[in-house]
Amino acid sequence: MARNDGIDRTFARNQDLPTLDDVAKVQEHNEREKKSYSNQDIDTTQTYRNIHFKAPTGSYAAMFDQMIADGVISTRGLKSDAVKYGEMIFDVNSAYFHNHGGYEYAKQFYTDAYNAAVEIVGGEQYILSAVMHADERNRAMSEALGQDVYHYHLHVVYVPVVEKQILWSKRCKDKSLVGTVKETIMQVSRSKKWESKVALDEQGNPLLTSKGKKVLRTSYSVLQDDFFNYMKAAGYTDVERGERGSTEEHLTVTQFKVAQEQQRLEAVTAQITQSEQALDTAQAAVEKKQKELQSLQKQTKEQRTAALTVQEIRSMGKKTITGNITLTPSECSTLKDYAVNGILAKAENSRLEEKLQQAQKSAAVWKQRYESLKEQARPYLDAVKLAPEKVRAFLDAILTQTRQTRQHDQPSRRKSQNMEL
């Protein structure tokens, strides 16, 4: 991974797969066997662009057993809890591929990287699967550039083996054969495959410490060197080697991702809070309008109860000879009052019903937004709800560790570089 300092660096990481459960999980991820992923950066619509440089012929475990049956590898003398599987991940920062043309350039780069992996592992026959992932979206770059940017990287799952000579024992009937090579096997051995090597100076002599002990290059440093040197020889001279003896790159990226997710969580949480407040306001407005309508309906009912009956109103007035109706001043005043009150009540009722409908529509919109935001934030809220202390402790631990690493790494950087160069 890159340190986001504008320099393109090769990165190679080797990890053990101690248990069959670890192997199965890596297989699910690498071969995209799951229907959905918790990693939101995996875009399954782009999975078809993933490239297998070596596709598995079955499950990783089944392929391992078949290799034993075919005599390709041997587990002779291996402890039951020994590590039998490994995975190497080859990587360069997303910006490197984006600036060189993207997908097509990444395909060629990782074709050469796969050839490097074959050489590092010791032969293609010991590789179970090698796949370039082209469906993992770089969210930060995509948002910054306003377009989808994908992070291309290579997963290589393999069996760590070393060549071992089996000698004839003293029990051999032909005493002339005792101590000579009986057979050569490719023994599964993680420890011997990745044992540290002696660091050499420019003349090829072992480097020594101040106490006269040989300086050892860790397997991680050896892998980084081998990958970088192979890719440089293949023509990729515009990338640098990942820093020696330092975990700063990994911690920096982890811290960056945690900080990004913290900001997202805070932003979504704030939006949810705002939506909840708006929803509460809208619901309160609806309740208020409903109460006003109920009050008006109650008043209308009371007025109707106190009002004259229809028959009484119809009986008002007297018909004259000409066919006209004459009302007494009292009757006329009464009818006018009821007419005015009825018109006002009808208008007010209509106005309140319109406001109620508007308030209900507004409440529905805010509720929909609230539910959408709540669904987006559900993983974060569930994590905080289920284990708030663990989430807080996890974030604090990463940030604290990063600060401490930076503080302690500065004085010892020159010394560690001298030790590993």
Commentary on this structure:
There is one protein chain. The chain has three domains: 9-245, BirA Bifunctional Protein, domain 2 (2-Layer Sandwich); 251-307; 310-317 and 325-400, no CATH class. The strands form four sheets. Strands 2-4-5-3-1-10 form a six-stranded mixed sheet, with helices on both faces. The chain is elongated. It has helices at 20-30, 60-69, 94-99, 103-121, 139-145, 190-193, 219-233, 248-306, 310-314, 329-376, 378-386, 388-420; strands at residues 9-17, 51-54, 85-92, 127-133, 153-158, 161-167, 181-188, 197-198, 216-217, 240-241, 318-319, 325-326. With 421 residues, the protein is an alpha+beta fold. It has twelve helices and twelve strands. 54% of the residues lie in helices and 14% in strands. This is Recombinase.
N-to-C terminal Cα separation, in Å? 21 Å
CATH architecture of the largest domain: 2-Layer Sandwich
What's the number of helices? 12
Largest sheet composition = 6 strands, mixed
CATH topology of the largest domain: BirA Bifunctional Protein, domain 2
- Arithmetic mean of pLDDT: 79
Order of helices and strands: EHEHEHHEHEEEHEEHEHHEEHHH
Give the class-level CATH name of the largest domain. Alpha Beta
Biggest sheet strand order reads 2-4-5-3-1-10
**In one word, what is the shape?**
elongated
Q: What share of residues are in beta strands?
A: 5-15%
Low-pLDDT parts are 244-256, 416-421
SS-derived structural category: alpha+beta
GO biological process, one term: DNA recombination
Pfam families: Mob_Pre
Protein name: Recombinase
GO molecular function, one term: DNA binding
